[in-house]
Amino acid sequence: MSAKDNTEKVLRDIHVLFSKAEPFEGSAINVVVNKNDVMDLLKELNSCMYEMMDEYELTTQSQAKAKREMKKEGDDIIFESTRKAEDIYAASVMYTDNTLNEIQDIMKEAISKFDKIYDETKERVDKEIRSVKKNQSDLKASLSDLIDTQKYLHLIEDENRRIAKQKESGQFSTGADENVFANVQPEIRVNEEYFRAQGMNPDGTPLGDSLGEEASAALSDDLDAEYFGWKENEENATSKSEDKGKKKGGFGSFFGKK
């Protein structure tokens, strides 16, 4: 039995003892009881009190222990939750780091491709620049076949200097509607030997019949040879010019074909 039950039993026995006791000299208040029985019941009651106090202390200790255990369990739960949260955060950081590394790799690859495209484009542009410069040199070289070569070269140099000055001053214009060679009048010279070989004067009148048949035949043969040689040179020059490409406007429109 518990201390509580023992205490209730002792109190009940005391109540029974006094209820069955004989009245003292007919008094309704005072009774006669056995001293030893009362002392025994008091001793039992005292023991029950100590037992109840011990149980209370045990209960208090148990509650404190239970609180400590609950607190420890709560701390364990908090620690475990914190650890898991840190694991989740670390995993997210690692995933983000991997993602950023992949993005950097993609950006580096894109930059590498851009650099490759730039290098290829620059190479093609440089090639075109070299081709244009070569065509320009060939074009100037073709002026050597003309009578006024130096005059044309000086005009080209003057025009280049003018364009350079305009570029430096920030006023450069292609001048598509202005032809700097518009006022240039090429000098036309007549090959008199050619007309004499044809038996005519430069004005188109016949030379006369002063030459004999043998001389006329010799002149005719020389004329044929000279004509076919000239035609062959013209065809070679035309083929060379077509291979380099014809340009519209500028120097090409001025000089044209020979």
Keywords:
258 residues, two-stranded antiparallel sheet, 6 helices, mainly alpha, rod-shaped
Number of separate helices: 6
Report strand order across the widest sheet: 1-2
Assign a percent range to the helix content: over 70%
- Kindly report the average pLDDT value: 75
Task: Describe, in plain words, how this protein is organized in 3D.
- The protein is mainly α and 258 residues long.
- Among the domains are: 3-79; 146-172 and 181-186, no CATH class; 190-258, no CATH class.
- Helices cover 74% and strands 2% of the residues.
- It is built from six helices and two strands, in the order H-E-E-H-H-H-H-H.
- It has helices at 3-20, 35-142, 149-169, 192-197, 213-244, 250-255; strands at residues 22-23, 31-32.
- Strands 1-2 form a two-stranded antiparallel sheet.
- Helix 1 (3-20) packs antiparallel against helix 2.
- Mean pLDDT is 75; it is low at 245-258.
Layout: helices, strands, pairs:
Layout: H1 3-20, E1 22-23, E2 31-32, H2 35-142, H3 149-169, H4 192-197, H5 213-244, H6 250-255
Antiparallel strand pairs: 1-2
Helix pairs in contact: 1-2
Short description:
The protein has 258 residues and is mostly helical.
